[in-house]
Design goal:
Layout: E1 7-14, E2 18-27, E3 32-37, H1 46-57, E4 60-70, H2 82-98, H3 107-111, H4 126-194, H5 202-215, H6 219-236, H7 243-264, H8 267-287
Parallel strand pairs: 3-4
Antiparallel strand pairs: 1-2, 2-4
Helix pairs in contact: 1-4, 4-6, 4-8, 6-7, 7-8
């Protein structure tokens, strides 16, 4: 099963005292990165939220948006800082007189100034944390479901790319024997042109020719590339999504394709090699979006 790293999930949990709503958005990342956008009061839960979601989501750049409503006013005390409010009012009135501003400083404006109403809580409320945990887990499950849907589309695309690479590989394999013979004929033709012009040992030349042609053999690369294609298919269908392993296999496939290309020395085969590289580049690009 493949899970994309991009997705979205939202959920709420509530009681008689609180209502917690959480949204999660996820993008590509090599590791798990969590960005919290929550009221300052709820930053006290950051470590717990991070631990909770890292287990559920594993990888990705995740943004969390938390909205909280206090249904029971007794659960929050304002603790207005009256000393600071008086200091603000004194300075503001002084500035108002200096600048000849007639408008009075009203209460809503004063209450909105920094630190007038501290939002720190004395102790975390277990009931509130339980609701945050419920909403976060429910949102994570919806995000995972969203990732799964995108992963299905990626898996279908991989099937097409792997089939295209396999088809081009078959073409390469079918042309490999004739290519070796063409190389041999070309070298022998060049040798016949040099007869009488150079003094050389024919036996030694034949040995060097065999050695050279063996270096052009691509059977091992073809076998390994087929193995990588099979392994990629197996990993793609594993119960757990593993983008890191798929990325590693894709890198190994690239090495074999590049080696085949460097040994080909045949225009027609190079065309099939280029096709394989093109399909593999698309696979590599998509693999980076897998959990």
């Amino acid at each position: 099963m493949i899970l994309s790293m991009t997705g979205y999930g939202a959920a709420s949990a509530e009681s008689a005292n609180y209502k917690i709503s959480i949204e999660l958005k996820s993008l590509n990342s090599k590791f798990f990165e969590l960005s919290l956008r929550v009221p300052r009061l709820y930053m006290q839960y950051e470590h717990k939220i991070r631990q909770l979601l890292s287990k559920e989501l594993q990888r990705g750049k995740v943004s969390l948006f938390l909205n909280a409503e206090v249904m029971n006013p007794e659960k929050r005390s304002l603790n207005i800082n009256q000393v600071l409010a008086q200091a603000y009012l004194k300075e503001l009135n002084a500035a108002r007189e200096r600048l000849h501003i007639e408008q009075e400083v009203d209460l809503p404006f004063l209450m909105g100034l920094p630190e007038i109403i501290p939002i720190e809580s004395a102790e975390p409320d277990p009931e509130e944390w339980e609701l945050i945990q419920q909403a976060a887990l429910a949102a994570a499950k919806k995000l995972t479901e969203s990732r799964r849907h995108e992963g299905e589309a990626l898996a279908a695309d991989f099937d097409l790319r792997l089939a295209a690479i396999s088809s081009n590989l078959e073409e390469v394999e079918s042309q490999a024997p004739a290519r070796i013979e063409q190389v041999r004929e070309r070298l022998m033709s060049a040798l016949s042109d040099l007869k009488g012009k150079l003094d050389f040992d024919p036996n030694r030349f034949e040995q060097e020719l065999v050695f050279y042609i063996e270096k052009l053999d691509i059977n091992e690369e073809i076998v390994r590339l087929r193995q990588h294609l099979t392994y990629f298919e197996q990993m793609k269908n594993e119960p757990e999504s593993n983008g890191k392993k798929l990325n590693f296999i894709a890198q190994e496939m690239g090495r074999e394709i590049n080696t085949i290309g460097s040994k080909a020395q045949n225009a027609e085969m190079q065309r099939f090699v280029v096709n394989m590289k093109d399909e593999l580049d698309k696979i590599k690009e998509q693999v980076l979006n897998i959990v």
